[in-house]
Amino acid sequence: MGTALVYHEDMMLSRLLWDDPECRIECPERLAAALDGLRQCGLEQRCLRLVAREASEEELGLVHSPEYVALVQRTQALSKEELQVLSGQYDAVYFHQSTFHCARLAAGAALQLVDAVLTGAAHNGLALVRPPGHHSQRAAANGFCVFNNVAIAAEHAKQKHGLHRILIVDWDVHHGQGIQYIFEDDPSVLYFSWHRYEHGHFWPFLQESNVDAVGRGQGRGFTVNLPWNQVGMGNADYLAAFLHTLLPLAFEFNPELVLVSAGFDSAIGDPEGQMRATPECFAHLTQLLQVLANGRVCAVLEGGYHLESLAKSVCMMVQALLGDPVPPLSGPLVPCQSALESIHSVRMTQAPYWMSLQKQDVATMLNPGSHSPDGTPATLLPGGPTCEAAATTLSSFLDPLHLSPIPPIRTAVALTVPDATLPLPPGVLCQEGSAPREETEAWARLHKSLAQDEALDALGKLLYLFDRILDGQVSSGITATPASAAEATLDVAIRRALCHRAQRLFCVALGQLDWPPDLADDRRILWLNIGGKEAAASSMFHISTPLPRTTGGFLSCVLGLVLPLAYGFQPDLVLVALGPAHGLQNPQAALLAAMLRGPAGGRVLALIGEESTPQLASTLARVLHGEAPPNLGPFLMASPEDIQALLHLRAQLEPRWKMLQVAGEAPGSGGSEPAAQSQPTEGPFPAAPSGPPFWVA
Ligand code: X5A
Ligand code: ZN
Which residues form a coiled coil (predicted)? Predict the structure, then answer.
C-alpha cells in the first residue's frame, strides 16, 4: 500500500507539427520535466509505479459518443495537412498521428489509478498524463484535451465500483467545462473548479464558468464554480477558497473518492495562469483533501506549462500523497479583496443547497449601503493593485529543485506505561527515553501538580520527545500526562519551546485548560481554547470558544476558525492538548490533528490524558503519521448557538486574522489596504533572534 504513480513514456509521442502559438505550450517536455523532478527528489522511487494501459472503446464510451471516438481513431492515418485541417475545427486543439494512442493511455492511466485505489492496491496516487482531459466533451476535443480522463474515471468508479459520491476538485487554472457539462445533472458527482475568469474575458470565455452555474435538475448544487476575476492569486487566496468554499461542501457531501484535475497552470510562473501560488501550496491543498474519503485521492495531470513550476508542484503534491510533512507556506497569508469577493459570492450562491453554508455569512453580509438600487451586490472595491504581491523573483520560489529536510522520524509516541498492544502503524517510533532527572525536576518546580511521581515521569518523557521535535529529529509526537497535571505540563511545554527560540507557537487547548497568565501579552503564543463556556477573545492571541455539539458545528469550527488562525499565524510548532473534560470523540480529535499538520510544516505535539483510551493514542499516531482520519459520521447542521459563536469570534478577530474573512470589506470600512502590504495590525511579530530557524539542528 502506498502512493501509485501511473505513467507511460509513449504519452510523450504526440506533439504539435505546425506553428500555432496557442498550442505550442502543450509539449512532450512537460511530462519529462515532471518525471525528472520526481526522480531527482527521490520521490518516484518511493511510489508504486504502474505502467499505463490504453482505455478500451467501451471505457471511452462511458463519456464520449462512438462517432467521436471513431473520428479520433481515424486521425492515426491522416497526413500532417489533414491533421491540421481537422484540428482547426476545434478550439485550441492539435492532433498528431499518435494522439489516439496517447489519449487512450491518458484515460487508461486514470482508470488504472482509480482501480488501484478502489481495490486497495494503493492508498492514493497520481497519473502523469497527456493530453490533458478536463475541457473535452462528449463529442468534441477542446483546449488541448481529447478524452476526458477524469470524467471517464469518475463514471467508471460509479459503474464498475458502485460508488455513489465522487468529488472532483479541478485546481487547473482553466474552467473544466467538459467535466461540468458531463455531470451537470448528476448529484453523485460534486464538481468544484476554480479558474481564471476575469469577468468572462479569459479563455474559454463562457458564461457557464461563472459562479451562478450550479448544475441542473437533480444536479443543482453539485457544480461549484469559483471564478477568479483578477490574476495574481496566491497561497492565501487558494487556501481561503479551500477552507471557506470547497471543504465545507466536501465534508457535507462525504465523498467516497476524490479525483483531482491536477493542473499546475495555477502555479506561479505559468504563462497561462499568471497566478502566484507557490509549489508548496499544492502540497497543502493535497493534504487538505486527504482528510476526505478515507484518503482515497486520485490526481490526474491536466495543464501546467512552466516546466520548473510544474515539476516542483508535482513533487510537492507527491510528497503530500506519500504522507511526508510538507514545507510551511511562506509570505503573509492575507487573501486579496478580489479573491474574497469571489469566495463570498460562491458561498451566497451555493447556500441554498448546502447546510454548512446556511446563516453563516450574516455578520459579514454587505451593509445595505453597498448594494446597488436594484438589490444586486455592488462590487466591493474598484479594481486596484490588491492582488499585487510584493516584488519577489520567481526563481526564489522554484530554485533549487530539492526538498526541505524531513526529520528522520515522522511520528514518535511517548507514553509512561508503554503499551505493547497499542496498534501503531509501521514506522511510528515508541519512545523510551526521558529527559535527565535534574532537568525534569527543575521544570517541575514551577508547579505543585508536577511533584507527584507519575506527573514527573510523564514530564520527563515529554521533555525528551519535545527536544527531539525542536531539534528536527522527530516531526510529530504524542505524549500523555495525568489529568491533574495537564495544565502544568502544557505550561512547561510552552516555556520549553520559547527557550528553544520558537518564534510562534499555536496552542489548541481542548477542555478545561487555562493558559499561563504571565504569558498573556506574549504574542509568540496564540492560544485557542475549545470547550470554553462562551465565545470570547480577551485579546487577538487569547481565544476561547465552546465545543460545538454537532458534526457540522465542529467542522465549521475547524475550517472556519482553527485553520484560518493556524495558517494566518504561521506557527513554528503546534501544541494540541486534550485536557480534562475535552469532550472530543476520537474521529474529531484525529481530524483536528491531521489538519494541523499543515500550518507548522508537520511539527505537531499532541498531549493527551493518561487515562484516555489506547485507541486515542493510536488514532492520533496514525493521522500524525499521514494516514487519513476516520469518518466523522453523519453530517448534522451546526446549532444556532454554534453559528453565533463563530460569527461573533470572526467579527472580533478578522481585523488581525485575515484568513478568517469570507467576504471582501465594504468600501470605507477601514481595512482596504492592498493585501500584500497589510501587516499585522498589532505590530510585527517579536524580532527573530539571529541564527537559523530553531528547528534546523
Ligand atoms: C488543459 C489546459 C488550456 C487551453 C488553453 C487554450 N488547457 N488557450 O490547461
Ligand atoms: Zn489549464
Answer: none
